[in-house]
Amino acid sequence: MTSIRQLRYFVDIVEYGSFTAAAEHLFIAQSALSRQIKELEQHLGTPLFERTARQPRLTPGGQAFYDRARKLLADLDKAERLTREVGQGLRGSLRLNHSSTVPITGLLLERIGAYLNDNADVSLEIAQQSSEAQLQDIAEGNLDIGLLRLPVLRQHDGVDIHPLFEEPLYLAVAAQHPRAQLASVQLGELCEERFISIPHGQRGGLSYQSAALCMQAGFFPRAAQVVSRKTTQLQLIQAGFGVALLPESMRALAHESVVFVPLEDKGCITTVALACARGKREMARQFVQVMRGDDAG
Fold first, then answer.
1. Three-state secondary structure readout of 117-172
2. Which residues, at least 6 apart from 2, have a Cβ–Cβ distance to it below 8 Å?
3. pLDDT tens digits for 41-78?
4. CA–CA–CA angle 100, 250, 205 (5° rounding)
5. pLDDT tens across 262-271, in order?
6. CA dist 180 to 44, 237, 244, Å?
7. Nearest-5° angle of CA 245, CA 247, CA 251?
8. Which residues are within 8 A (CB) of 188 and not within 5 positions of it... i.e. 6 or more apart?
9. N or C: which end of the chain has fewer CB atoms below 10 A?
10. pLDDT level of residue 297 (50, 70, 90 thresholds)
């Protein structure tokens, strides 16, 4: 059977123009190189070079073999490089989940696009998942990257959380709502409103922060007849079921019949964060650097 070494020796002789030059390049004795080519010719049952020429000249069989041998070696080099890069975490797929209140728009979309432009051999698998579930999956090795809103209720060993950016909260109401025409509103004025987003006992995130802000203003948000923690809350607001405190980035998803009214209260700011495993792969490490806007990476 033809060996990879024999293929490389044969191709080097052709490309370096002589047995002597090829032997020097390969750091082997010319006699050893000649012996390998002779064994290759015996295995193939046909000469590869014309022995009478001052410089080795390919026979018709040698030319046909060279064309295929060169392609085989190129494919092998690609396979080795791909295997090495996948093993080092430089290629493959990243699993990324985001909470319903962290839409992939604006700055997030810009930075994801920048990372993918620079890493054409990486693909992203994106799904939606609650913040707490993201952290659990990252801790268990079932997820690479999570995009969520602070605060989170549980910390997991081996999971790092990197704040990415802050954005203001607004009161989101239907266009026909009496407050839709106001220039701004104070939280304390909303004690009689029905909120379509109520905090869950086992989850943090935006609904938890919204309730905390309302409590600072002196009341706990009253639940609407229909509540949701998903992006469907925009449809519920549009239909007039209630109101919600929503981040500026969700305006990109909202229908024009949903109005975002500025809040006058200080501290009505929400933070988007990225979660990842502490011992993450190189591919994920580079992704985190780009998402954080680090200069290095």
1. HHCCCEEEEEEECCHHHHHHHHHCCCCCEEEEECCCCCCCCCEEEEEEEEEEEEEE
2. 40, 43, 44
3. 999 999 999 876 667 889 999 999 998 998 998 888 77
4. 45
5. 999 999 999 9
6. 84, 12, 13
7. 105
8. 217, 218, 219
9. N
10. very low
159-174 and 258-262: which strand pairing?
Answer: antiparallel
Contact between 290 and 117 (Cβ < 8 Å)? no
Q: How many whole angstroms separate alpha carbon 246 and alpha carbon 207?
A: 9
Which residues are bridge partners to 97 per DSSP? 127, 146
CA proximity to 65, closest of 12, 25, 16, 10: 10
